[in-house]
Specification:
about 160 residues; alpha+beta; 4 strands; rod-shaped
């Protein structure tokens, strides 16, 4: 009786595997692409942060757009199609009012008692491509990130 039962069930596990294997492979590839897109987004975020940190190190570095772009690009070696731009902007900070007012150029002066604050902004874009073309989802996505930091002169050495 048991031998007859086994003969009728032979091959059923192969058929079940043939049905479920494409679904499992699709889920695996989807999970891998999902993780990869977040990794790429974090890598682009890190790269633009590195570029902004370079520019924020000193007032001299805040004028070095090429240096900020170079620092961001060096940190993004594993991101396909990465490109960056850098900019410098200035504001007048009023401590008494607690407000910042945009300045036309960084060569302008603020009315007293306001002070000039200098900011650097690095914008980066990287490309992400999926392993598989999923229906309804683009195969390539551009990931954009922006980092903005205030530039300061290093503190004076103690006397």
């Amino acid at each position: 009786m048991f031998k007859a039962q086994r003969r009728r069930d032979s091959g059923s596990s192969t058929a079940e595997l043939a049905l479920i294997l494409p679904v499992m492979v699709g889920l695996l590839l989807g999970a891998l692409d999902y993780a990869r897109v977040f990794y790429t987004a974090q890598a682009v975020t890190h790269a633009v942060s590195v570029g902004a940190m370079y520019g924020a190190q000193s007032l001299a570095n805040s004028q070095d757009s090429a240096g900020m772009i170079s620092a961001a690009t060096a940190a993004a070696t594993d991101i396909s199609g990465f490109s960056a731009t850098a900019a410098r902007s200035c504001t007048c900070w009023s401590a008494s009012a607690g407000t910042e007012t945009a300045m036309g150029t960084c060569t302008s002066t603020c009315t007293s008692p306001s002070i000039v604050r200098i900011y650097v902004t690095v914008t980066g874009t990287g490309n992400f491509s999926t392993f598989v073309n999923y229906p309804g989802i683009p195969g390539t996505v551009g990931i954009n990130r922006v980092a903005r930091m205030r530039a300061n002169d290093p503190p004076a050495a103690p006397a």
